[in-house]
Amino acid sequence: MSDLELYEIEGCPFCIKVRRKLDDLGLEYESHSVPRRRSQRTEVKEISGQTGVPVLVDPEHGVEGMPESRDIVAYLEETYGSE
Ligand SMILES: N[C@@H](CCC(=O)N[C@@H](CS)C(=O)NCC(=O)O)C(=O)O
Question: How far is the CA of 18 from the centre of ligand 1 (A)?
């Protein structure tokens, strides 16, 4: 069991890619829908240092705010792929 969290926007293709990987790996996660306006994405900015989504949080492994869908997918595969 993990405490994964995903910051995302509905319809965002990069977020969908990450959600697919989470689903493929059978991982549960808490979804946070972020505002469409970049200037209002204060929480995402605080945890990841940028305003883009998706952003993954995985406290169990010290991941406080990982941006970039490609990095997130690779991380999930490496961390949970063989479980
Ligand atoms: N290269 C990024 C692109 C992510 C991206 O462009 N996300 C859009 C939403 S679909 C976004 O949040 N754009 C606003 C921004 O980058 O500040 C990734 O693969 O995660």
Answer: 12
At 79, the pLDDT band (50, 70, 90 cuts) reads very high
pLDDT digits (tens, 9 = 90+) for 47-65: 999 999 999 999 999 999 9
Residues framing ligand 1 (Cβ under 6 A): 9, 12, 14, 38, 51-54, 68-70
| Pair 63, 57: CB distance under 8 Å | yes
Per-residue pLDDT band for 2 (boundaries 50, 70, 90) equals confident
Q: Give the structural domain span for 70.
A: 5-80
Report the CATH number at residue 53. 3.40.30.10
Q: Identity (one letter) of the amino acid at 63?
A: V
Number of domains in the chain: 1
Ligand 1 closest atom vs CA 72: 20
